[in-house]
Amino acid sequence: MTDLSSLLGMSEFYFSRQFKQATGISPYQYLLQQRIERAKQLLKRSNHSIADIALTCGFNSHSHLSKQFRQLTGTTPKAYRLH
Q1: 61 Cβ partners below 8 Å, 6+ apart?
Q2: Tens digit of pLDDT for each residue in 6-37?
Q3: N or C, which end of the chain is more exposed by having fewer CB within 10 Å?
Q4: The whole model's pTM is what?
Q5: DSSP three-state, residue 32
Q6: What angle do CA 23, 6, 65 make, to 5 degrees?
């Protein structure tokens, strides 16, 4: 976020506030949603391990992906893959 705000010549605070006004969510929530969407695609279209998918999508670990995935989708990555 610091990179984006400096690229646009804004403070982080101002960028975050403007972003949230425009989209209804914070930059972090937007990024998290994008990462989860990418993880969903990989879970359905590949045989990569969930740990590999987590790292590919920018999560620190399998457990971090699982926690965020469950919060946003109501299910685990493993259960999502099986459906």
Answers
A1: 51, 54
A2: 888 888 999 899 999 999 999 999 999 999 99
A3: C
A4: 0.85
A5: helix
A6: 55
Tally of residues, the chain:
83
24: phi then psi, degrees, rounded to nearest 5: 90, -5
- In whole angstroms, how far apart are CA 12 and each of 1, 19, 23, 25, 44? 7, 10, 16, 15, 35
Is-contact 29 6, C-beta < 8 A?
no
CATH homologous superfamily, domain 25-82: Homeodomain-like (1.10.10.60)
Q: Hunting for tokens 């279209």 — which residue is that?
A: 45
Residues 27, 46: Cα–Cα separation, whole Å: 28
